[in-house]
Amino acid sequence: MKIAVLSDIHGNVPALDAVLGDLERWAPDEVIINGDLVSRGPLSLACMELLRRRCPQARYIKGNHEEFVVASARQPCDPDDPLFDLYRFAQWTARQIDGEVEVLDAWPDHFELTDIEGGSFHITHGSRLGNRDGIRPDTADADLSEKLGDPRDLFVGSHTHRPLLRRYNGTLVVNTGSVGQPFDGDHRAAYGQFTFHNGCWQAEIARVAFDKARASRDFFESGFVEECGPVAHLIHVEFEQARIHVGPWRRQYMPAIKARQTTVAESVRAYLAALNA
What we know:
By secondary structure, the chain is of the alpha/beta class. The protein has two domains: about 1-210, Metallo-dependent phosphatases (Purple Acid Phosphatase, chain A, domain 2, 4-Layer Sandwich), CATH 3.60.21.10; about 225-275, no CATH class. The chain is about 40% helix and about 20% strand. It is built from eleven helices and ten strands. The strands form two sheets. It has a five-stranded mixed sheet with strand order 3-2-1-9-10. It has a five-stranded mixed sheet with strand order 4-5-6-8-7, covered by helices on one side. Strand 9 (about 190-195) and strand 10 form a beta hairpin. Helix 10 (about 245-260) crosses helix 11. The protein is globular and about 60 Å long.
């Protein structure tokens, strides 16, 4: 049995197209999209349509960005809210995908495979603690037990955009990284290849080069950067550098933004100025 797990595509068509080409050569029995197919990037609907054409039997799991889009479609953020600019790209995505919102909402939160001896398998976007609670390379062993929950032979998560392979108390723990926006300094798309053979799982993180220049242009030609506010500029910087910036920016400025001591736009400009100093 061969299973491919793709996650955190974030509307990046060139990266998804390249990974699907790699899958045609590897020929998995199952393809699982482990959340964050849409939003936080330029071409969400095109990614959904591409998967339906080229991988019609794929399974889909809901990530935090699917949840953001569904919530934004049902209750758009008040423009007077100090966090309005933080949610603009989710609302923009909800408009782009229009009638697909209910499809996203119907995706399950996890997938389990427990009926093969020695091959129990749990996959979810983040961890058992939720789709925004991922497993990072620096996650301590003391924190893993609660994140993994009931023991499985293989536990697969994503969300952090940084891949890992790790063993913990007999469980093979894997983070598949990101197809569309890697944060580990490697600009290639990342996805997980899992093989069940002779009663045990083997895992590999596959890296696939894609047309990064084309993907970068998509951020602008789609209207994402212009129409989704200041955080969209920060997301594009992350894409160009393959490094996380939204998280550090949030930790530095969010209390002041909520207290209306600064705005999202002002704080992004300050963060980028310090980054480029």
